[in-house]
Amino acid sequence: MKKIIIFSLLLAGITVSSCKKQLNQSPKYGLNAEVVYSDPDNYIKVLAKLYAGLSMTGNQGPAGQADIAGIDEGFSAYVRVLWNLQELPTDEAICGWNDPGIPELNKSQWNAENVWVKGMYYRIYYQITLCNEFIWQARDEKLAERGFSDSDVEMIRKFRNEARFLRALSYYHALDLFGNVPFVTELDQVGAFQPKRIERLELFEYVENELLAIEDQLLPASSAPYGRASQAAAQSLMAKLYLNAEVYTGTPRYNDCATYCEKIINGSTHQLSANYQSLFLADNNTSPEIIFPVVYDGLYAQTYGGTTFLICASLGGSMVAADYGVNGKWAGLRAKPNLVDKFSDSTLDSRYLFYRTGQVKDITTMATFSNGYALPKFKNKTLAGLNGSNSSNSPHVDTDFPMFRLGDIYLMYAEAKHRSGDAGTALQYVNMLRERAYGNNGYNLASVSLNDILDERARELQWEGTRRTDLIRYGLFTSGSYLWPFKGGDVAGAAVSDNFNLFPLPTSDIILNPNLIQNPGY
Question: Which pTM value belongs to this model?
Fold first, then answer.
């Protein structure tokens, strides 16, 4: 159908086999790293595996040859575990399932054995390992040794910079979610040592320096293929890093955040989509707003994670699955009333996408789907109303997940400018999004506060995996001053310990690696 430019069929483990052997040997038979990387045409195929690490769970589609052990394969998808950790403990979403670890995320009562916490941790480090091996194999010395042509070397260098971006993205997630973590690069031999522990500040500086090094080496947004990392993708990640710098390092970097937002805004390649809902449909690959997507395809990139999860798990009760382009209702996810209450003009704001028939706004029982409005924001339907490529006979969808998009850049810019003393510019960019939401300027704000910007982020970026980080930045994630159903385990909500601003490292890693120290409170 559309955008299958980053997926290819690869044998399991080809990017990690014979990884920097302590002995200068490689397997004599079969497909191994020396064979794969000896052909310049294979580098794009291995790069595809790196990108697919954000969307897929293994090498055989939705089931079979799973990348991550110890967690159900469908549960282990990068976007699914990231979304659960970023949304379920917040005021935006609740999941009614009783799968191990889910109730604890709903209640902010997880521990180091939580399967979702471990799934995210190991997904991050699996991705980093793949990127490290690719970067090692694509270093200049190795390319010269293999006798590649100048044009092939130049091509592979571009791929190497994309791999560095993907590694920086995963290290950013490690920084944000876990804080002080194990640290390995392409220079470290797999299995030869126990990784050192890197402090959060040092990891911040590492991610910053990596992005600074590759920013101008990536393709401009105007020429980068869809689904691949562009200069704007690196700039978006840099802006997000700087927006949260005070949390990560103790030092605010709001002016730097604004500078990187301006690079994207002034670049003019990315524009706001005219229709908000179009950003979350099966043909959202046509949107000029999406800067860096995680790409899905109902025929060629099938998974029970990602947007398949976000669509199917949001359907239940009296909803008709076929109306959303899928074949089943998983009846799990609903919106918490706090999110609903952010919309004072519910019938007018196009971002008010709640399904209310048969649903009640308040949530007193986690397991009851009718408790809480449904939020079918993501759909496997095109803007013209057509089904995705796999039609309604399958749960697998074409809808891409917008990891970075211009609407978020506008709101980061507004917050950074406001915190730097420029409330006028902040108001301008908030109102641009409100005009898109309402279709006119009749509901523009006359002034804007930081709390207004946080509420606008909830409306604009609902269920896009930013909320936990936003609430922590505002000091509200653990605080008793702002509550939501089941926060702290209480149906009415309760404060939780500040140690929950970070997730714990898995106990198994703490035991196996004496360099690591568990996060406080776990």
Answer: 0.94
Do 331 and 97 form a contact (C-beta atoms < 8 A)? Answer: no
Structural domain boundaries in the chain: 33-295+402-512
Alpha carbons 512 and 195: distance in angstroms, whole number: 10
DSSP 301: B
Of the candidate ranges 170-179, 191-200, 373-382, 394-403, the one whose mean pLDDT is the lowest: 191-200
Q: b or e along 408-441 (b: 16 or more beta carbons within 10 Å of the residue's beta carbon)? A: bbbbbbbbbbbbeeebebbbbbbbbbbebbbeee
Domain 33-295+402-512 sits in CATH at 1.25.40.390
Strands 196-198 and 181-183: antiparallel
Q: How many CA atoms lie within 13 A of 444 on its CB side?
A: 13
Cα separation of 248 and 176, whole Å? 7
pLDDT in tens, 192-248: 679 999 999 999 999 999 999 999 999 999 999 999 999 999 999 999 999 999 999
E runs forming strands in 147-207: 181-183, 196-198
Per the CB < 8 A criterion, the answer to whether 193 and 210 are in contact is no
Cβ neighbours for 328, distance < 8 A, ≥ 6 positions apart: 312, 315, 321, 395
